[in-house]
Please model this.
Amino acid sequence: MGRTKAKPGVKPGPKVGKDRRQEILAAAAQVITDRGLSETRIQDIAETCGVSTGLILYYFESKDRLLVEALTYANDQFYLRLSRELRKNPSARAQLDRLIELSVPGLLPEFQFLDEWALWVEIWVRALRDPEMAKEHEVLNRRWRRSIADIVRHGRSTGEFPEGLDADELGIQIGAVVDGLAIQVLMDHGDVTPDDMLRVSRDVSAKLIGFALEPAGA
Amino acid sequence: MGRTKAKPGVKPGPKVGKDRRQEILAAAAQVITDRGLSETRIQDIAETCGVSTGLILYYFESKDRLLVEALTYANDQFYLRLSRELRKNPSARAQLDRLIELSVPGLLPEFQFLDEWALWVEIWVRALRDPEMAKEHEVLNRRWRRSIADIVRHGRSTGEFPEGLDADELGIQIGAVVDGLAIQVLMDHGDVTPDDMLRVSRDVSAKLIGFALEPAGA
Amino acid sequence: MGRTKAKPGVKPGPKVGKDRRQEILAAAAQVITDRGLSETRIQDIAETCGVSTGLILYYFESKDRLLVEALTYANDQFYLRLSRELRKNPSARAQLDRLIELSVPGLLPEFQFLDEWALWVEIWVRALRDPEMAKEHEVLNRRWRRSIADIVRHGRSTGEFPEGLDADELGIQIGAVVDGLAIQVLMDHGDVTPDDMLRVSRDVSAKLIGFALEPAGA
Amino acid sequence: MGRTKAKPGVKPGPKVGKDRRQEILAAAAQVITDRGLSETRIQDIAETCGVSTGLILYYFESKDRLLVEALTYANDQFYLRLSRELRKNPSARAQLDRLIELSVPGLLPEFQFLDEWALWVEIWVRALRDPEMAKEHEVLNRRWRRSIADIVRHGRSTGEFPEGLDADELGIQIGAVVDGLAIQVLMDHGDVTPDDMLRVSRDVSAKLIGFALEPAGA
DNA sequence: TATGAATGAGAGTTCATTCAT
DNA sequence: GATGAATGAACTCTCATTCAT
Model:
């Protein structure tokens, strides 16, 4: 991957601040995904990017700050990829399809580098008690719902979707369905498979927005 | 029921095991709700029920075991209260209404003694990495979806609801909406209020099940 | 000495709280004397009394609290020994002599178990910036000056000393001389020896109080 | 004097070694005064003189070396100012008065740029265990006592002071009184005010040297 | 000269767990 | 059953020191 791998026995030398920060944030997000937020140690992050623990705290004022930034960073990355994908599709229905597809946990591992939903759950837990995280969550959350609402608005402007409920309201409704289903898939009991999520999300979205889906398999 | 009855007004001496366990579980659930799972110390739980830390570990083999049991215990309590409430209503529509009502975070504090949804989120996080919790979650989760599916089945048997999608499928769909909205309410940004959740859950459920809601205010 | 020595390989077993606290305070005072306040580690104290570092912080809320208490404790011990000694002498001049004698650094090692003056200097440094220590210092300091003033008052009541300056004022003056000389002796450059301090303190005290010393060697 | 003169108003480039060293020493003395020796970090010193920590250690082989030098440096500065002041007064009694005046903590802030006595206490603590500091202290200490003894000798040569005790002995005695009182004033409990120190130091000095003070207010 | 990124050795503190009583 | 003293293994964070640039 994009990691600079230090040859053993050779000091990699200093990097400019911004690169290092991003490297650390990426490492942190990775570790949080792997071990969970509460089991993430600074040491783990340091090892993941091959530096000392001292350096981590040289770039971030505290572990807590770093973790919040890492969660935000990972979500930002996801959002950027998502936006890029959506822009490729002119049709609102294709966009909606793509958004759903990209949101199914584990469906497109080449797209979801990290387990984005696992990070969302960590964000929720933390936001419940950490005002700083709560603030960040508010931003991330609105951005997510707006992505959906924007698709609805776009679909109406092109005539693909009928007029109806307020688009923001639909953002909330469809967002809730996708969130709720993603949790089920994430928990991985087999009751709700990725394919189930895909199908159900589409069905329910269609019903809520008010357009007809092609018959399955079409 | 085999309980030793502590004489009222007398300092309770040693208690029989089952009582103590429940007391500790209740205290643990309370502390987890207050401080979050990862910030819960055995000492906190001990203080909450006025015993020593030693005693906590005398009854539970380890902190981890205790926490998992406490989360399960709290959810059981919620489920028992929910079932009791549902049984009071003969009509499926009233049952569905009641289920939704009881699920809105913070709407009925006299019913939700603890912040049940905050505990759900903790369960999700933990289930992601702890197989024991994952196992428990599977049970709790199915029970929750079945509560919904059973209402659907009941409504169809009484003719209140039309035939349509598989009831279990609807359990998943409506469950997802409720879960997703509950998170939004829980996060408490004001974008989705308890009343919003109430209204939207009812609307979407009606649309998905296929019955007509009375006009608002009726 | 009074230390319970744990047989190797055998756990010494728990002690009652108050004993342990005193043991730790004594150990802390010892370590501070040996290595200096700023070089005193909790680990050092723990080793000195043969317990774990965890136990130290089980008895004292923080290292800082412990250090302040230890300095106070050591001074208390010194003061108690001093008072006991003074009470043995009915004559004010003998009391003054004894007080001076007991105050000379290193003169009576069987009396000054610790290097009390080294601890005083640490108290001064700390009191300059730590309000808690400043508060304690105020008490210890006044007690010290009052010991001197009380001797003066006693001497006047017996007719040994002439009337003159306010006794508290003399407490300040003689206290200052003793403090100042003690520092010189403590620094141990040989310019002011313990015997010098003894002699000078007596001379200056006599002059300040206003009585005649017997010719040297009498 | 071999100084590179930095053009005024122009960002100073690299400086010649001696200037830099002095700048750093002054900054170090300032920081030690402000925060105390044991709380002084290289970083603090670096910030105070606006350079990097690297540079500090480029000029001083280690933190410990720097601190000792800084304490010496500050005392040197005080001594130079003191000597200059004394030379202004031909009369020994005026010199003694001035010396005492200049020694009272906080009395003449325009003269005592730093809290010289706070630094003395730090010197004492450090000298107790650091042989290097002990060595320096010996020098500084003797210089201090000699300043007093020299005034006594001067006063005798002019006939202001009577013959009597050895002048060095008086240096020790008066020095001790001043040291002891300075500590009391420094501790700032209000029991010994700067004015008290002034008055008492003069009284006791007069008594010890053997001359008569003018009546107060004269 | 001067910088500041990087290290690494501790330091204090927390806390689950044990165990003698 | 119940206590709480005691342990010891982590963990976060600090800071003097080094070194490539």
Observations:
- Confidence is low (pLDDT under 50) at residues 1-11 of chain D.
